[in-house]
Amino acid sequence: MEKLTKFITDERTGITYELQGDYYIPCLKLPDEEQVEIGVWGMRHLEYIKHHRKEFYTSLVLDCKLKRYLADINKQAEEMFDTLISQYKATEDITEQLKEDKQMEWVAHMNNIRQKVTEIVNSELIYN
Asked: Which ranges of the chain does DSSP label H, i.e. alpha helix?
């Protein structure tokens, strides 16, 4: 019986195949993606697209664009969050003076604002 070679390369395509049992399986590897930080907003969006937009998720993975896309979503969400917090603070007259004079009232207002803004960012960017 003839012994099969562990690796073979197709000269037309340049793809290398590895012997696995009785079959040759292509040795394919995705290129390395750029290393970027993905924050909480990006991770939330990742979970959303994994479960609700599977085709989009798969195309990002196969095109090696997932991490860059999630980092961009995270950046947009952080900017939107910070901008909206500032706007709500100005609209509702939440000042540093209030923080010094009535800390618990300030905390209650800020928690309320953060909750509103989180819902807006989630609906506009993360779960959309």
From this structure: 40-52, 54-62, 66-91, 96-101, 103-121
What would the mean pLDDT of 95-101 be, rounded to a whole number? 95
- Judgement on whether residues 17 and 76 belong to the same structural domain of the protein: no
Domain range spanning residue 18? 1-30
What span, in angstroms and rounded, lies between the C-alpha atoms of 123 and 97?
Answer: 32
DSSP category for residue 123:
I
Amino acid symbol at 50:
K
Rounded Cα distance between 10 and 26, Å, is 10
For residue 3, name the pLDDT band (cuts at 50, 70, 90): confident
